[in-house]
Every structure is written in structure tokens, then in C-alpha cells.
Specification:
Blueprint lengths: L3 E4 L1 H6 L12 E9 L2 E12 L3 E14 L2 E14 L4 E10 L2 E10 L2 E6 L3 E6 L6 E3 L3 H7 L7 E8 L4 E17 L2 E12 L2 E7 L5 E5 L4 E6 L2 H5 L8 E2 H5 L1 E2 L12 E8 L12 E4 L2 E5 L19 H4 L10 H11 L5 H15 L1 E2 L8 H7 L1 E2 L1 H14 L4 E10 L8 E11 L3 E4 L12 E6 L5 H9 L2 E7 L1
Parallel strand pairs: 4-17, 22-23
Antiparallel strand pairs: 1-10, 1-11, 2-3, 2-16, 3-4, 4-5, 5-6, 6-7, 7-8, 8-9, 11-12, 12-13, 13-14, 14-15, 15-16, 18-25, 19-21, 19-28, 20-21, 24-25, 24-27, 25-26
Helix pairs in contact: 6-9, 7-9, 8-9
């Protein structure tokens, strides 16, 4: 996903001295991508001066694994900026397996015009006096400043798909020794917070990023050149994201898909986590209690739901293209002439469960593409269900968090990243089209709601979460 960085006034006030001008010369960097000591990929980035600005081009190639399925993930970004790195245009592409996600944009006169073969055309309005910069040039912006221990910077990251800004803060720590494959270097340690996720950078006095550590044990390390950066990457040897994000427990949950009640003790949690989503999920001190909804209490209604309260849960988004003809057709196929909301929602859960092949997928899913591919993991199931439900007139959300999975052999199992849905039936009812559940079992621990654009914040939460199973039934 491409994001755009909006330089905020708070950032300007935080910087006491004038920034250094970027050198008007070609600047090239190669990085290796690691998980632990295993090299899983590399990245290449070039900033080239033009007559009145820069072009920025970056390529990333890495092997990632999801539930034992290894996939080559490749991204390519090309952008044009002015001398201050203010964005003029960009094009981004992500390829993973059969998934090909593309988006391009141009900035002019207070708008960002997006054009995507995947998501269609969109226009996002921005304040005319706000300069935009690609998040990929964040390292240039930071490196362009005079780094001193204790100084703080702030940006706002703008996501063109969701049109939702999010704050990014960076705090400069001490100058530290750093061991790299090329030898010993000194660099400022910089702590970055973005959407609840912590990242640590090491930037030298010239503004070069020498190392970056992110969630789930992933890191990038500066390499001497392209030959060294691409050495040692074995095809199919990628880090398993599901295993990296797993939250192990010491007590197994018997028949978890039938669980109507679950009590957990939250042993460790990020400060950004919100656990209370009543009435289904409540936090009392460090005890988290989840109760599966009782279908006898559901209050159905005639479709379509027209209450203004549910405008957000019935609207189209870049990922949920509910006005697309193929989505409308699939919703009619799944629901037929049914006008009872509860019965229609049950039909949709069953249709998505039966229609999509259960295949681990690393992608940025959207409903139209998922419907065409008819395959995917929990993200694809949740995105398609939400679009079909909204198209049928049922208010629907995407919920993300963790779900308990029993062990394959010895051990007590673990909670894994998962996405599911909620539909309105007099209350928000959790349903899971991946498991074919209506309602979803009580081992679904909700952490956030929203589409694929929120996955970054979830990755940071899961990496810092630890729970203990106390009771279930």
C-alpha cells in the first residue's frame, strides 16, 4: 500500500534549525532484509536529481511464508518530487503469487487523483497549502534534518486508499556504535511510532539509514552494493508471518470452534490496544471476557437497512466496491429474494465459506479481485463478505485480532492473527466466513475494526501481546 506523508506544522515547530539541502546528485542504497539471521530478501532505492526536483525509485523483493505457504513478494515504486521532496506523481505495484496490486497518482491544485487497475479511479481532496511527500521519502526528510539527541520530529501519513491521516513521530536517541556486514559504524538511534507500531532506525550523520528493526522480528540492513544485498537469499526460505505473530498459551482450549465463553488474563499488552467491545467483549482489570452472542436475542429487519446511523457500515470504500456490477450480481446470487436480514446474513456467510478456496495469501485484498480469484485466507473472506453484505443492504464491518487454533501435535496451541466480520442484527454480531460460523466462537479476540489499511497497527499490537487462558466453555 502506498501512503503519502503530509508535513505537519507540529513537525516544523519541533525543528529548531534549518534543514540541510539534499545533494543534487544520484543517491543509491541497497539493503538486505532479514528475520533473525536469515536473509529473506533485499531492497534497492535510487534518488536521482532532475532539473527541478527528484525521481525516487525503489524495488523490494522478499520471500514470505504464511501458514507454510512460501510466496515471493515484490514491490516497485516510482515517484517524482520537487526539490523539497513534495510529491508530484507516483506509481506503485505489488506482486505476490497471482495477486497484482497497482495504484498511481498525481497531485495538483489541492487534490490527489488516483488511478488503479485494481481499485478504479478516485479523487482525494487535500488542503491546498499542505505539501505532500511519499512515505518512502520519509528517510530523506529525516536525513535532511540536523540530527541531534533528544530532538523530535512529527509527520502525518496520508493513505490514498482510505483517505485517513495517521500521525508518525520520530525521536532521536543517542549516537551508538553499530555493527554492519561492511564493518563498524556510528549512527543515531531513532524511535518511530506509526499507527501503534514501533520501529527503530539507525541513521548516520549523513542521513543514511543503516538499519531498521520493525514488528515481527523483521529488519533491513545497509549492504555495500547490489551483489552483496542479493547474496544469500534462498527461494522459498521466507519468514512465516503467521508463526511470527502467534501468541502461545500454556493451557489448551478444547473444541474451540464451539466455545461460547472465554476468559483470558492479559499478561502483556501495547498501550494502544483497545480490548473492550461490549457487549461481546469486555475488559475488567487484566481479565478479558468474551461471550458469543445468543441468536435468540437477534432482532432482524427487512432489507435494505436505511438507518442513517449505519451510513459508514453501508458505504463503498476503495477495498469494498459495493457498486461494482460483479459484486451486486454475487450478492443477489447468495441472497436471492430474501429480505430478512438475519437469514440473508446467514446465506452470505455460507456462500463466501463455500465459494472461496482456503489458500494463504499475502496481498492487499479488495472485493472485486477476491471475487474474481475466488481464493484467499481470512482477509480475502472478510473483505468479500463485507462488500456483499453492504451490497445487500446489511450493515457490515471487518474485525481483526486473533483467534485460537489448537496444536497440530504437542503443546497447548496459540492465538493467531485473524480477520472476520460483524453484522448488525439489533446488536453487532461477530460472524466468520472463513470458518463458516454464525455467530463466531468466543476465541475470536477483537483488537481493531476496519479494512486492510489498518493491518499495520494490528501487526504492532500482536507483536506485543501476551495472554493466558483461565476459563472457557
Amino acid at each position: 500500500m502506498v501512503t503519502l506523508a503530509v508535513r505537519s506544522g507540529a513537525f516544523s515547530r519541533a525543528v529548531a534549525t534549518a534543514p540541510r539541502p539534499l545533494a543534487a546528485e544520484r543517491h543509491e542504497q541497497w539493503h538486505g532484509i532479514y528475520r533473525g539471521k536469515q536473509k529473506i530478501g533485499y531492497s534497492h532505492r535510487v534518488r536521482t536529481p532532475t532539473a527541478d526536483g527528484f525521481t525516487v525509485e525503489s524495488d523490494t523483493s522478499m520471500w514470505l511464508s504464511l501458514m507454510g505457504s512460501s510466496q515471493a513478494v515484490r514491490t516497485r515504486l516510482s515517484a517524482e518530487t520537487d526539490r523539497s521532496l513534495v510529491l508530484r506523481s507516483f506509481a506503485f505495484r505489488l506482486r505476490s503469487g497471482t495477486i497484482d496490486f497497482e495504484v498511481a497518482g498525481k497531485v495538483h491544485d489541492g487534490v490527489v487523483d488516483l488511478d488503479s487497475a485494481t481499485l478504479g479511479k478516485q479523487t482525494i481532496r487535500i488542503p491546498p497549502d499542505v505539501p505532500l511527500a511519499l512515505s518512502d521519502t520519509l528517510v530523506d526528510l529525516v536525513g535532511n534534518e540536523r540530527l541531534e539527541t533528544g530532538r523530535s520530529f512529527r509527520y502525518t501519513i496520508f493513505d490514498p486508499a482510505s483517505a485517513a491521516p495517521a500521525s508518525v513521530t520520530l525521536k532521536v536517541g543517542p549516537l551508538e556504535p553499530l555493527t554492519l556486514p561492511s564493518g563498524e559504524r556510528s549512527a543515531y538511534r531513532i524511535d518511530q511510532r506509526f499507527q501503534g507500531t514501533s520501529t527503530r532506525l539507525w541513521v548516520d550523520a549523513e542521513g543514511n539509514v543503516l538499519k531498521e528493526e520493525g514488528p515481527l522480528g523483521l529488519a533491513i540492513v545497509r549492504e555495500i552494493d547490489g551483489r552483496v544485498a542479493m547474496q544469500g537469499v534462498s527461494a522459498g526460505a521466507g519468514a512465516d508471518l503467521a508463526a511470527a505473530a502467534a501468541i502461545p498459551v500454556t493451557r489448551a482450549i478444547a473444541t474451540p470452534r464451539d466455545a461460547a465463553h472465554l476468559r483470558l488474563r492479559v499478561a502483556r499488552a501495547p498501550s494502544s490496544a483497545t480490548f473492550s467491545f461490549p457487549p461481546r467483549q469486555r475488559l475488567d482489570g487484566d481479565r478479558l471476557v468474551i461471550e458469543r452472542e445468543d441468536s435468540r436475542g437477534f432482532r432482524s429487519y427487512e432489507l435494505p437497512e436505511g438507518d442513517e446511523r449505519f451510513r459508514e457500515e453501508l458505504r463503498a470504500t476503495p477495498f469494498l466496491q459495493i457498486d461494482d456490477a460483479t459484486i451486486r450480481r454475487a450478492a443477489r446470487e447468495a441472497v436471492g429474494n430474501e429480505r430478512d436480514a438475519e437469514r440473508a446474513a446467514r446465506s452470505l456467510v455460507d456462500w463466501v465459506y463455500r465459494t472461496l478456496a482456503k489458500v494463504p495469501t499475502i496481498s492487499v485484498p479488495n472485493a472485486v479481485q477476491v471475487l474474481a480469484e475466488r481464493r484467499g485466507d481470512c482477509n480475502e473472506h472478510a473483505v468479500l463478505f463485507a462488500a456483499l453484505a453492504r451490497a445487500a443492504g446489511i450493515p457490515a464491518k471487518i474485525a481483526s485480532g486473533t483467534v485460537y487454533m489448537p496444536p497440530d501435535g504437542d503443546g497447548a496451541g496459540a492465538f493467531y492473527y485473524h480477520a472476520w466480520n460483524e453484522v448488525w442484527l439489533g446488536e453487532w454480531v461477530a460472524v466468520d466466513p472463513t470458518f463458516g460460523q454464525f455467530p463466531a466462537d468466543a476465541t475470536h479476540v477483537k483488537l481493531i475494526e476496519g479494512g486492510p489499511e489498518n493491518d499495520l497497527s494490528l501487526a504492532g499490537m500482536i507483536g506485543e501481546l501476551a495472554v493466558e487462558v483461565e476459563d472457557f466453555g
